[in-house]
Amino acid sequence: MKQTSKRMESAELESPIAALIIDDTLEAWCEGVFNRLIDENNAKNSALFLWVNGELVLAASQTQHVFNFYSHFKPSEEYSGYAIDWAFLASRHLDDFSFVSELPFNAGWQQDNVMWEHAVIPLRKSDSLLGYVLVEVATPDKKKRLRSESFDWLRRDAAFQLKCKLLAHQLAQVRLSKHQNELDLALNNRTLSSQLTYLKSLHEISLRFTKATSIHSLCRIAIELGRDRLQIDRMGIFLCDLEKDKMWGTWGTDPHGNVVDRSDFCQEMPNTLFMEEAFTTKNELIVKENVPLYFGREQVGIGWNVMMVMWNGDECIGWLAADNLIYRSVLDEPKKEAIKLLAASVCQKINKLRETELNNQRLGDLEKMNTHQEHELVLLRRKLEMGNQLGAWSKMIDPVTELPNEKYLALSLPQIVSDSRRQNGVLAVISIEVDFFRGYQKLYGENEASNLLRSISILIEENTECYSFHVCAATAPGEFMILVQYENEVHLREMTEALVNSMYHRNIRNRASAIYQRVTLSVGAVLGGGTLFNRTSRLLKNAEKQRLMARKLGRNRICID
């Protein structure tokens, strides 16, 4: 009975192992495991990482039913594009087994209303850690559905045959190494030929870049020639402003291989670990193997994806991205170097174009500033001229009556006489004095004296406004001079008499006047004559003589010559 029981237990232990697909190669074993994970756990993404020679490497991955085995093993970072501490994740979630986040490790964009459950499963043989299996399952909510016991078969199978499969794979690689010299020579020849072809194409592309006059046209040339000359399936160039947290497209390739304008694509910078890794690693091509490929934010396939960030000193200006969506081309070392060199050439040209645009903008700003300053200079000159004219005019204006002063009269008299001669007119010069003005000024003060002079200037204007041409000037305190072009001498005499009488009858008190006790005027006039105008300098003096004569004759009167 005991022997029968032991046999039954042994059969139960062996039955799960027997149920596993026993495959000859590590590749077949990985594919079988991944397919079972899909069938039993609805796994969307799976990956196997193995410890080889003290280094954790990527052996195989399956992304949405697309399986890839890497016979020469890839660096573990090429699964997600950035380094992940799988041992830390496995130990951190040892008790709860799985955890939920918004994105798969190898995805670029979050899908609407979809969360992702992740499990990192250590694989062991006795006490030896062989590696890890990553399992990712889509979930519409944050509820965790993966259970540790559901993967006991995987742990047993890995303990049973994974190490053997790995050793067999390594042995096969050693056997292949016997022919390595021949293979290396063929590979080197092929690599050298590819490198020469790529270098020639890159030189032609650089020459074409010289024809680009804008960043927009440059990016289109780079995409078109990258597709045609470098055999890159799809490529896109994105620019960014990290300070504003914005990225935008330029030109790219659609899922059918057509070069399309993507300048309408603009959004906030994606906040992912892959982008963080890309922006903290200068001059390195970031590679992701067997990952979702996108057009905008829409997934269009699965394949390899590379990204090369472009820098201007310490400033990130954008990046160049490429993938193998259309022809599933292999990403070998020559192609990696070609993409890096192309990105460096595009980056250099963008920086030069931006510098040129900035210089042109500065030049335009300087030209605008110069034009504005020239305009301001013209305005300042006009203001200065006006100021000078006003200054000169202010020197020829009496500040009390605001009438032209003696200086103005002296400067303008020759022209006035000349104009009168051309018009065959007759000119009269009238000199007016306010009797006893200085005594009035002392007796009644400056303000009253100024008010008196202003009222007399108004009286003079009122009496002379009937003449088409007349000039009234304040020649000294309490003295005025009038130049009138007249036709009727009788009317002129009446005007001067009316001026004297009007002032008298205003009865403005002046105790300084011993004769009249009021403000009166003494007027002297010189009427025009043919011989008189031959000597214009004597006109004003003759009028003043007549005024002095009126003063001697008792004031408040007119003397006319």
TrEMBL record:
Family annotation (InterPro entries): GGDEF_dom, Nucleotide_cyclase, Rev_trsase/Diguanyl_cyclase
Name under which the protein is recorded: GGDEF domain-containing protein
Signal sequence residues: none
Domain GGDEF: 425-561
